[in-house]
Design a protein that fits this description.
Number of strands: 8
Helix content: 40-55%
CATH architecture of the largest domain: 3-Layer(aba) Sandwich
Strand order of the largest sheet: 2-1-3-4
Distance between the termini: 9 Å
Strand content: 15-25%
Shape: globular
Number of domains: 2
CATH topology of the largest domain: Rossmann fold
Number of helices: 11
Radius of gyration: 21 Å
């Protein structure tokens, strides 16, 4: 719906309105693998109070005194292993841009809808893309944090950043935030199909399928974060859809950081133990990641595979994320069309 301009004064400034924006938001990515780019990205990420809930008086001396002086080089080297050399960017940026472009194509029947993308950390920022959508005439925006399972350290911090931008705007767009979809049947079916398709390309059958989710500190869970429960439900629904038993399917948690206890069982320890216990063939899927990134391509496909082989395992397969494939886009489109109801 477009505003009636016939009643405007002759000197009224041109104003665009009547559009609906869809903003896809993922975690973030450094602009490069060099020390400066990595430090800038890690500083923004690790100063987020949703990510590290310690008091700044306790955390900042460690962060600025140690972590930001040593970790950028280490993480930069890891990114170099999985960097998209063709586009000179991380694959997370590549896939998120592709998802945005494909979503726009899928929604071309909705003439008033504009689709864009942003990153919580790094560029393009959430604030810049909300501003761009507003300038394009979007007086309503669907904000889509690309996380199937809700966590304060992921979904909530995306929402926080969007709300922070709105605080600075005189003419705020209406904002609708997308909830989690951890038990959506289309999402579960897409995960199951990706497992079946990938395993069909192998000449061996895994004895164990791990569903590895990003971890969070146990203290966050105990304070009421629903993430653990949602991961477990996703895992159970996927196991049931694949017809597997608890003896050949496990939910595990990866990417722990710092001295705190995190959600368990830990993926890295589980992979080691499986190999040490005589399991020779395993496959790993990352249901909580919409797109492949450092945590899947390097931590699982490289580090976990190496650990499994070093401890006696023989066959290891990493099942790619849904990324910008047809099944993955079907999931995202379903969620977006559902959340657009009443606005189009």
């Amino acid at each position: 719906m477009t505003a009636d301009t016939s009643l405007r004064p002759a000197d009224h400034p041109a104003v665009k309105s009547g559009k609906v924006g869809v903003l896809l938001v993922n975690l973030g990515t450094p602009d490069g693998t060099d020390y400066t780019s990595m430090r800038r990205y890690l500083r923004e990420f690790l100063t987020d109070r949703r990510v590290i809930e310690w008091s700044p008086w306790k955390w900042y001396p460690i962060l600025f005194g140690v972590v930001l002086n040593t970790r950028p080089r280490k993480v930069g080297k890891a990114y170099e292993l999985i960097w998209n050399k063709e586009k000179n960017e991380s694959y997370l940026r590549t896939y998120t841009r592709n998802q945005s472009e494909l979503m726009a194509e899928h929604l071309k029947d909705l003439a008033t809808v504009k689709v864009d993308w942003a990153m919580r950390y790094g560029t393009p920022s959430i604030a810049s893309r909300i501003e761009a959508l507003k300038q394009e005439g979007c007086d309503r925006i669907v904000l889509f944090p690309l996380y199937p399972q809700y966590a304060a350290a992921t979904t909530a911090t995306v929402n926080d950043k969007a709300f922070q931008k709105l605080l600075s705007m005189r003419w705020q767009p209406a904002l609708r935030t997308v909830p989690d979809y951890h038990d959506d049947e289309t999402y579960i079916e897409a995960l199951a199909t990706s497992v079946e398709k990938h395993l069909a390309t192998l000449d061996w059958k895994p004895e164990m399928l791990l569903a590895s989710f990003h971890g969070i500190p146990m203290s966050y869970f105990k304070q009421g974060d629903p993430y653990y429960c949602q991961c477990q439900k996703t895992g159970r629904l996927l196991r049931e859809r694949l017809g597997l038993t608890k003896e050949n399917f496990m939910v595990t948690f990866q990417s722990r950081f710092g001295p705190e206890e995190w959600l368990q069982p830990y993926t890295d320890k589980t992979v080691e133990k499986l190999a040490q216990d005589g399991v020779k063939r395993i496959a790993v899927i990352n249901p909580g990641f919409v797109s492949d990134c450092l945590e899947t391509l390097e931590e699982i496909a490289e580090q976990a595979a190496h650990s499994f082989h070093e401890n006696g395992g023989e066959k290891f397969a990493h099942i790619p994320c849904l990324n910008d494939g047809e099944d993955g886009m079907t999931v995202l489109e379903k969620v977006v069309r559902r959340e657009l109801q009443g606005w189009i």
